[in-house]
Amino acid sequence: MKTRRTTIIIFLLPSILFLSLFVIYPMLYNFYISLFKWKVVRIESFIGLDNYVKLLNNPQFHRAFINNLIWILIHVPTTTVLGLLLAVLLKRVKGSYIIKSVIFLGMVIPQIVVGIMLLFMFDSDAGVINGLLRSLNGFLTSVGLTEFSFPIRSWTAYPDTALPALIIGSIWIWTGFAVVVYSAGLEGIPKDLYDAAAVDGASPIKTFWHITIPMLRPATIVVVTMTLIWVLKIFDIVYVATRGGPGGATNVMAYMMYEQGFVFYKWGIAAAIATIFTVIILAFSVYLVRSMVRR
Amino acid sequence: MKSTTAGLLAVVLLVIGIIGGYFAGVSTAPAAETVTVTQTVEGAGMATTVTKTVTKTVQAPGEVQELTVYALWSGVEEENFKMALGAFSMKTGIKINYVSQPELRDVVTTQLAAGTSEADVIIAPWPTWIKDELGAAGLLEDVTDIVNKVGRDKFPSAYLDVVSENGKFYAVPFKAWAKPGFWYNKQVFDELGLKPPTTWDEFMNVLDTLKAAGITPIASGDGVGWPLSDLVEAFIIGLGGPELQLKLINHEVAWTDPQVREIFGRIQQLLKGGYFDEAREWTIQIDRLMERKVGIYFMGNWINLMLQERGYRPGIDYDVFAFPGTGGIVAGGDWAFIPKFAKNKEAARMLLEFLAGAEAQTIMVKLKGFLATNKDVPKEAYDAADRNIVDMLGTLAVLPDLDDSTPSEFQRLFWDKLKELWANPDALDSVLAELEQKASEVIG
Lengths: 295, 444
Prior knowledge:
Shape of chain B: globular
Order of helices and strands of chain A: HEEHHHHHHHHHHHH
Number of strands of chain A: 2
Radius of gyration of chain B: 25 Å
Number of domains of chain B: 2
Largest sheet of chain B: 7 strands, mixed
Structural class of chain A: mainly alpha
CATH class of chain A: Mainly Alpha
Structural class of chain B: alpha/beta
Shape of chain A: flat
Number of helices of chain B: 18
Number of domains of chain A: 1
CATH superfamily of the largest domain in chain B: Periplasmic binding protein-like II
Strand order of the largest sheet of chain A: 1-2
Distance between the termini of chain B: 77 Å
Helix content of chain B: 40-55%
Strand content of chain B: 15-25%
Largest interface: A-B, 25 and 31 residues
CATH architecture of the largest domain in chain B: 3-Layer(aba) Sandwich
CATH architecture of chain A: Orthogonal Bundle
Oligomer: heterodimer
């Protein structure tokens, strides 16, 4: 028994060492940084939890937090449903791996590039989105519905359209992940269940509702949790496309953290945002791990 | 097993041999010698040729030094700067690794906060950052001796004062730049019978004529935020006078003050009237200006270089006019400094001395889009467009850039709020109220 325990400890030791060095220590050190007031690169004074209090009373932080929430509320359900539907539809299509690869392509494009592409896609002159809207407006005019025409403008330059434009972009690049996870999940559902349902005369919709969806629960947990975490820490697209603007319309927590630290040198405030971030993401991660272990 | 040990032994001996050989080479290297060479530098895609005789110090093999230089310049500005760096390398044998660093401020501050620096020499246009943030924190080398060696009287005092504290210099002046006014497509103006306006009424007439011809009158540059800020500053100085710009920088007048509100009210009216183009990436607007999509474009003197790079001729295809009736011109510069953690400080000091000198700055001036800070650069070195700007600097009140002279927190908000105003002109009062709040908070 003693030998077994020693073996376990020896095998765990490298992981514990690396985790302590690269995860736990930085987390604790970050919390330590958040307890001070900084002047450019030097600590000015110990202020306890004052940075957290300031942050919770800061309207900019409220807005960033709300923007994150809006992003989550639109992005997570859309990606999950889109991913599920595409995976189910493509299951019976011959050569579907080509389509899946194309959908997955968004995942392998660096987000910085995606941010630049979004700027072009939503540009009023050269953008594909405005090109489509122009065609649509042409059709509306031809049928006498000019008053329903869409405004042609650079979406990222206006407070009311900038956030939706970025969310659409993030959905585009993340849907590939959901499709791949659900496709793998579908492969794991025993065919006998569908055969039994067919024998009982279940319609395709009932089969989908009562067999496919419940059997895909583990895949859904992975998709939802991973997407949530990804959306929470979204930064690159915002940084490249809008820098949190215009008028703070696209500011999110990760961007605010960067700006407070690397632009304003308020390292204490930036560290406080990072700590809050860590707590939120940790909660989701714990839920994910527990759900998977329970399985 | 035996063969493995022998193999390992051979590898170890080989490594020892290489290291030993390297150090032997260093110890037996001949002393440095000085020769004279002639270097010819040609402008990228331009007819400019700079021929000069330089003294080259040939370094001994083990003494080859390399400097890393950070600056914001990319594209043709980078190419031109590399020519000046090339002249320095020819002269000293010191290799230069130039890094175009668009996020210069963030990267440098972060490195210095970590107690390190990749760059030996950094060139930046923010004197407040250099002196009050990095210099005051003890993160920069004292370069007073270099300024004295080149000669304090060689530079306008304004370019020295902003980077010195109690007689100690943190940086040397290299480049000067100015934001002279609205650049315009001369052929469009000729075709429409327009002349550079000198009064507000004439200005409005120009805008109305351009609009009637189907050209969006004023280009709005976007990007990181400064182009809109420059445009707004032109209105502040032109309509409120140079002193209003200075008062706003120091927050001696409120952003909600009726005088400021009135100036912004005019901008608001122009925005609502469709006189401004949608805010677009600032270099795209250069092309739109020459493609007759926009009529006039407020921009700094560096656009002269960019237009010529595109094949346009100053005075024939394009020209510039100051904001009608303005009494001031925004000008600034780029300063070179050495971070405390630079690895090669001696060579860095040599480069700073070179950049502050007339030799390097004459090379840059001849390549266009560059105004010298060193008074020894001959006026003949400038082309017509740049010389025109130098003359403007002599007749108008030279003012610091508003957003560059305020703390980062205000600057970022100013940029963002202007973008918001451009998207929603009705938000004017809330924009000014937020600017006032932030100015009270961070400027005092």
